[in-house]
């Protein structure tokens, strides 16, 4: 193939040799959702007016489309205390899933959750309290995840700084990884998180997309399908913080391909083991209601040692390849 | 050229037909700068520890490299109340300068300023005040820019909602534009802004780059060159909020190509007219000290009607083309 040495798209739209240049049909970014809010607490600075309108609750979306998409669009949604950066270049400098899925023929959409990253938060209550117009209780419940605590949550090891044997996260690049973490405004937002209706709007605009979530956002694709099934072609929930309760209404999931995917060491984690159990109950209940749901432990399909941040682990692209195969087998075009 | 119909790179590394697919040699993201901070005020939630280490002041960078770069790297730095989104797809859905410059053979780096977008802010003082451990004065001086006030600052018109005759910003897409705006933490940061040393580190890593700033960040490339000239191949300051004082040390700019670029209606703006005057004085002083500085009004080179957000105006790609030509004429490889 002379053409491929020029970095052209391989037949089928993907770029199968990851060392070659990447050819994309279209890329860009836009916002979905959001609403205008009038506030009298926007600024205490003379150069900026205290009162006026701002847009809040919108969701930033960055996308790349392969030249000839052969596979369904995927929407990548990050977890707690992180942004869309989760899916980009790994801390040790390898290709992220944002590019990997494009190279495999999937139009790929990476979002920043509402009030995180490039999706604006509302500063009003901070300004209001600083001005003495409200008490400290009015402040948003913003939090940062400390590296020491996140170490355990991300299952790099049982406790900071111990490491699980065989764990695949590139810890030599952890300083770069910690820089990915941002303050989390989740608890300052209404329920459901505005990211959920925005995901629904995006999935419908795309006329069908696989919603791929992680951790804190694990429940969002399920909430999206419950809000409106249209556009939800499938769900991949990676290490979800929660699955829908087994006793809840399973009708939104009838016929829907669903993968709940887990890394390693889950049973050794007091934080994650109950979530695994709860998701197993969900998968059983969903399948009784006609869903095509599956729970997979990566160690059982050839990938032991996966951390909670498995899209950045040393074997992240092999896991991505397996995931692309799962989507081929389960999600209709 | 049969090859070009396959979306291959044009000779010289650029993709000269903007309707064709884009071929890039490499893309990705990383952080520059940052430091670890220990805090006892990270969280009031039982699920996240109150104490521990977070990384702050790092700068997020997203980049794309053309197949055969024929022109120097450019680093695009957004202004007040915005993020790197400034340089991406315009509100009315046209190509942003992030892609345009790649197609013209420039390796292109888009940053989020420290404490903005995907570059983490420090939530400690919010948590501290909410917990009653400090008074409201300790809160960060965060502000949001109201749409009504920003209208005048961005020179869409003399006052909201009046429009300057012939103004080129795509106001029919303003709802999408307002969603780009985020709370601004600038005043909660040390001086110089941590973005400045991060830009210096980035420019040196790139072994020479043009620093292109906008508005609030207009002064940053000058501060970067003053901190350390290494790596600063040239400066394009678009509608800077300030230029260096004419009485300040001009030695860092000796021999340096500098463009201070302005849109239209500046003389009609009480906010901007003094800044134009101040920058004119800087350019004169810099040139006396051996700089290769130039101030250009876009209306004088064939582009009347440019707003403050000129990289998103209807004629943004024509302005970009002019700018690429300026860089060819003034910045050495």
How are the secondary structure elements laid out?
The structure is a homodimer.
Chain A (H helix, E strand, L loop, with lengths): L21 E18 L12 E15 L7 E4 L19 H7 L4 E5 L11 H7 L16 H7 L20 H5 L16 H11 L3 E6 L5 H8 L4 E7 L18 E6 L10 H16 L3 E6 L18 H15 L3
Parallel strand pairs in A: 3-4, 3-5, 5-6, 6-7, 7-8
Antiparallel strand pairs in A: 1-2, 2-4
Strand order of the largest sheet of chain A: 1-2-4-3-5-6-7-8
Number of helices of chain A: 8
Shape of chain A: globular
Tell me the span between the first and last alpha carbons of chain A: 28 Å
Computed structural class of chain A: alpha/beta
What is the average per-residue confidence, as pLDDT of chain A, rounded to a whole number? 95
Percent range of helical residues of chain A: 10-25%
Number of strands of chain A: 8
Radius of gyration of chain A: 21 Å
Oligomerization state of this entry? Answer: homodimer
Please mark out the parts of chain A with pLDDT under 50 across 5 or more consecutive residues, or reply none.
Answer: 1-13
| Element-by-element helix/strand order of chain A | EEEHEHHHHEHEEHEH
Strand content of chain A: 15-25%
Largest inter-chain contact set: A-B, 80 and 80 residues
Biggest β-sheet of chain A: count, sense, barrel? 8 strands, mixed
